[in-house]
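Encoded backbone
================
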Amino acid sequence: MARIPKDYWERRSTQLMQRLERGTEKTIDSLIKAYEQATKNINKEISNIFKNYTKDDVLTKEQYKQLLTGKETDTYYKNLLKVINNNITDETIKKKLLAKYNAPAYSYRISRYEALQQNIDVELKKLANIEQDITKVRYVDTINEAYYHTMYDIQKGTGIGFSFAQIDNRTINMLLNEKWIDKQNFSQRIWDNSEKLGNYLQIQLTADTMSGKSIQRISSELASFMNVGLYNATRLVRTEVNHFANEGEMLSYEELDIEKYKFIATLDKVTCKHCAELDNKVFNVKDRQSRKKLSTFASK
């Protein structure tokens, strides 16, 4: 069999990455819309508080004291729990939120300010839930595209048709649940980032309100903080897509008992230094980073 030219594999690899990037951009567009909506919702909550306690755009010390001592109604709890039940689909997170915010309803009534912070927390959990749902779709598509596209390229390049196993849901879920960075899977990283952002926003809101900042200034700073959260989310998506694309390709190599592969990096201004250093190097499939044996493909 004739040797397949190097530029064939480079061209096919580039085409695959371009297809994945187009899908990734659509996912990022959805994330942008979700973060923009969450920012609007949080700003609305803050604005309502200011309107209830002052006619100006800042709170005096006395008004801030009233905000801290004014008690929220029982209706608030019913609405909060309804929001959690209707918007959080991750059962583990839902149970934690219900346990966290249901208990106080039977012991004491919290202040309006504490309620505001709870609303911010729940709004960010809603955002994280959306982020988890839309990115999961992208990652599943990425694994499938990388696997089947690689199989097609090998068949086309060699001119040999062959049968191969299909990827089943158990294999997909095993890859999605893999804790390959900081002992967390992609979902855990989303919720962890959400928790950090929520804690930061609540602390910053307290500092801004106590210092007498205007509602316009607080809203502007909130948008900046949320943009940082969006930046981290989009960076995570790009990293995860690259990871799952590699996993999909490796699955195809393992399925075909391919022993060696060459790392081909797209050398441009966004290529990381580490990837550039690996360009054109040959590796043994068996020597790649450890991963649980995925022997759950459907029958050929």
